[in-house]
Amino acid sequence: MGHKFTADGKKVAVIGALNAKETIVQEIFVADGTEFPAGEHFVVKTLLDTPAETYKAKEERRILESIKKLEDDRDRLSSEIAGFRLKAKAAAAKIKWIEGVTDSEVSGVFDNLRSMMCGEYTHVVFPQYLEIKEWSHDLFTMRDDYNRNQFEALSLISLFGNWNKRLGLNWKVNTYCDGSGSWKNIIPCKSIEEAVEVAKGIVDAQDYLSDSDYEFCLKHGIAVDEGKNATRISRKTENIEKQIADRKKQVERLEDDLRIIMEKEKP
Q1: Cβ(167)–Cβ(98) under 8 Å?
Q2: Tens of pLDDT along 129-167?
Q3: Fewest C-beta in 10 Å: which of 32, 141, 170, 238?
């Protein structure tokens, strides 16, 4: 008794030929790891040596492969864009020059240093991802497994120039004590109220609000611009509706294809 597969994927035992075009078979079941034929005999027109992949499964696999290819292309392009930006910055640095620092900027730097050394700062604003944290030595200490002295593991806090139009001075902290990691902008503040006010200025200067920006504003009691919030909700809603519409179209196509296959397989 030989084994074959039906067009819809069932494994069957071949009982015998009914005629030149049809074959009598019995489905194979599995119990405790053992295969055995069971159930009523039935007639099929098509038998395969290996399981057939349904069109729906094939289409789903094709969609997944297409998504993976698009994601790979996106990551490759993102990497290329990052490289171009670095080259552009390097080229721009060669043709720019420092226009000078004002007395007020110099005074501000000295005030910052004095406040840091005297422990006057209580909070830090991270403008890149809009977050407020309490000022503490733990915030600027790199934890490791080498049992180093605490002061040897302190992350670097440095003054940076900003090349946008003029110099400008910004404080940044490094993720590693030796300066080999990435740098993050920080804005030191002397109270939580000052930190919230600084954060409010950052939010007001942005063209749009992200979901995380909105949650930050709610957390710290910052009034949200109604127009920006409406735009945020509208963009989010449009994106979700587009995703739903795309998935519905995919499901409809797969169901249509499956219906056609089932019609063809009817005796």
Answers
A1: yes
A2: 889 999 887 777 765 555 555 545 556 667 665 544 444
A3: 32
Residues 116 and 37 in one domain: no
Looking at the fold, whether 48 and 108 belong to one and the same domain comes out as no
186 DSSP β-pair partners: 171
pLDDT in tens, 204-219: 888 888 888 888 888 8
Q: Say yes or no: 198 and 133 in one domain.
A: yes
Q: Dihedral through CA 178, CA 183, CA 184, CA 188, nearest 10?
A: 50
Domain that holds residue 131: 103-233
Domain assignment present for residue 163? The answer is: yes
C-alpha span between 220 and 192 (Å, rounded) = 10
28-34 contacts, C-beta under 8 A, 24 or more apart: 28/3
